[in-house]
Amino acid sequence: MRIGILNSGGDCPGLNAVIHGVVGAAHKLGWEVIGFKDGFEGLLPPGDYRILTPRDTIGILKLGGTILGSTNKGHFAAKIGTGKVAEVPKDIIDSARQTIDQLNIEALIIVGGDGSLTTGLQLYHLGWPIIGVPKTIDNDLSATAMTFGFDSAVTTVVDALDRLNTTAESHKRIMVLEVMGRHAGWIALWGGIAGGANVILLPEIAFSLEKIADFIKKRTAQGQHSTLVVVAEGAKMPDGDLVTLDNNCSGEVRLGGIGEQVAKRLQDLTNKETRATTLGHLQRGGAPTALDRILGMRFGVMAVNLAKQKAFGRMVSYQAYHVDSVTIEEAVNKLRLVDPEGEVVQAARAIGICMGDS
Ligand code: F6P
Predict the structure, then answer these.
(1) Across residues 169-182, what is the average pLDDT?
(2) Given a cut of 60, is residue 289 above it in pLDDT?
(3) Is residue 284 lining ligand 1, measured as CB closer than 6 Å?
(4) Packing angle, helices 186-194 and 150-171, rounded to 10
């Protein structure tokens, strides 16, 4: 038996752990693993791939990025912006199929987010032996309680807040930290709570700058002269607008800049010196945490189990501390957003964190 694996979309700490799990489990079954390079692009004739043996995976568990490369644009992009699904053209699929047939690939493991899994679903509907593995630091896929990469991103946010806190205290400043989170505020919420933020702003909760300024003024009156604010890149300014940079080639709007805007407004409203930091891709790079290494490895092993059962069209999923699977159909197009009334937000409010709305 010969199986293929590819990583598609933005990278994420823990991708190499998945490869480690897939190659290890497949080798145990006597199977050969072909790793396609740069996402689906590696499928295009003549094919860009390498055979992966356990020897090739020595030491990769702890590495960030992916040894296979990835792309979030190119010929197979199925999603351009929220909710818009574009079919991959038939001629592209037909030529990629030649590579799969020539190499006798009997299962193709796609490690990707919402967009890449949407492409995977289209291929599955055309009879391809697809197995999905969910991947996103944003942790916003509804069919899995957690994705690898999220914990690593949160850990980076916490480290940044710890550092910002000391300088904020020295200078009695407001520090605004902009973090990733395109549609969902999980990174901001978890990172903010764990890093001791005083204000957390999410895409899911509309905020008022005046209310945040009042909160900060009260803190100052109580002798707390520094304030840490975390804002998700996908949060909307009170006028309802996303703050964007420019479009990248795939048409997906690049978010960024809300931290600077919030900082400027808070400085004006509070008369306190305010600085903004954008954490950006530091959250995506670097070594995965222990949790992400283990989760990624387990996802990879489950993907091989699904291949063994010929359970095509399914995606690995993590539910209640258990790695299982769901149909890819169930998994795509449904984002798992932060519930503004949910327990984690309530816990944050209970300990006095301002969510920007009261
Ligand atoms: O979807 C994951 C994510 O990290 C988003 O939070 C962010 O908006 C986006 O990727 C950045 O993508 P790129 O690396 O293409 O700029």
Answers:
(1) 98
(2) yes
(3) yes
(4) 50
Using most ligand atoms within 8 A of CB, pick from 254, 258, 278, 336 the residue to mutate for ligand 1: 254
Atom 15 of ligand 1: nearest residue by CA position: 10
pLDDT band, very low/low/confident/very high, at 75 (cuts 50, 70, 90): very high
Distance between start and end Cα atoms, the chain? 59
Q: How far is residue 11's CA from residue 13's CA, in Å, rounded to a whole number?
A: 7
pTM here is 0.96
* Per-residue model confidence (pLDDT) at position 250: 56
Q: What is 2-148+288-331's CATH number, 3.40.50.450, 3.40.1380.20, 3.40.190.10, 3.40.30.10?
A: 3.40.50.450
Q: Are 54 and 27 within 8 A, CB to CB? A: yes
Count of residues in the chain: 358
* CATH code given to domain 153-285: 3.40.50.460
How far apart are the C-alpha atoms of 127 and 27, rounded to whole Å? 26
pLDDT digit string (tens) for 137-167? 999 998 999 999 999 999 999 999 999 999 9
